[in-house]
Each structure stands twice: as C-alpha cells, then as structure tokens.
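User: Could you check the structure of this?
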Amino acid sequence: MRDKKWVYLQPTPVRIWHWLNALGIVTLCVSGAQIRFPAYIHVLGSYKSAILLHNTAGLVVAVSFSFWFFYYTCVARTMGKLYLPNRDDLQFGLLRQAKFYFLTYFLGWDNPHHPSPENKFNPMQKSAYLAIMFVLVPLVSLTGIVLTNVAPLRELVLMVGGLKFLVAMHFLLACALSAFLFTHVYLATLGRTTFAYIKPMWTGWEEEEEEEEHEVQDNL
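Assistant: Sure, the predicted structure tokens are below.
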C-alpha cells in the first residue's frame, strides 16, 4: 500500500527561469537552423529577421543564465550541493540510475532517486547539468557574443582560430545543446505518469508515493 505526500521542489524564481530559458533555447534552435540552412528553412521570415531574433534570444538566455547562477549561488546557496555529484553518485549512483532509465523503468520498477529540496537531481542529472550549465551554455554564449561583435573583437577572433573556426565551434556546441534538449524532454516523461515530472515546473509541487512496507533496495 502506498501513501501519497507532496514535496515542494521548485520555488517560483526557479520555475520562471526554467520556462524563460526553455523558450529562449527553442527560439535559438529554430532561428539558428534557419541562419545555418537558409535555403531550406524559412520558418521565421527573412534571413535578417532570423538573425535579429537569434541575437535577441541569445541575450535573453545569457541574462537568464546569470539569474540562475546568482539565485543558486547567492540566494539559495545550494549550487554545489545540488549540482556537484558526490562520491556515492560517482561510485554507485550513475550505474543505478542508468539501469533504471535503460531497463528497470520498462519493467515497472520505481525510480531509485526520490527528490527532495536538498537533493533534487539524481546522479545522471547532476552530471549532465554540470556539463551543460558550467561548460556548454557558457561556451555557446561566449562564442555567440564574439560572433555578434566580430569587428571590435577581431584580435580575439584571430586568437581562437579565425571566423570559420568560431562559427563551426558555435554551431557544434549548439547541436549538442539541441540534443540535450530532446533528451531532457524525453527523460522528463519517465515518471509514474507522463507529466509527473513536468507538473512541478508549473506548480512547484511534486507528488511522491511512499511504500508502507519497503521492498529490498537494489544495490546497483
């Protein structure tokens, strides 16, 4: 038998940031695709319009990222605890979570990670977010800023390998970010119901079911 309880996981500032960031990244993907393949994609009208929208969305995402960093570092002060994998995460948690995503979820088993305000993310999420938020997003943002200011930053452009190299780097980083977006949406549907992990990003609350009689936990 299971008892239901509600856990407040996502404060209002985090939810605002999440959806603002999501809208910005989707806009960047669509406008970036039109800029990269103008002969095949015409979703946003003219090429000039796509560039303007892309630059605007890039600015929104950069500001949003700064907001996220400030909130978790200076307000909540939980950046390290939430996003840095600990020893148990690295030794056992990654394998345990991968086993759930690739096998035991399809057998109807429970998620081995039970989120709390102090431990929101499972080991795989921590590792992915660490790479995305501390490596990928900053690099995409920095290369984008340089590409929108080529003339005044000419020396920097030459220093990093030239304009073609910078464009290629920005495009490849953006492709990686797009791949993460699709993966993120898919994994968000792997709750007890399709929208169980999505609702908390609207309401802040996640419903969790607890077993009265706990089964023997899988050690992997």
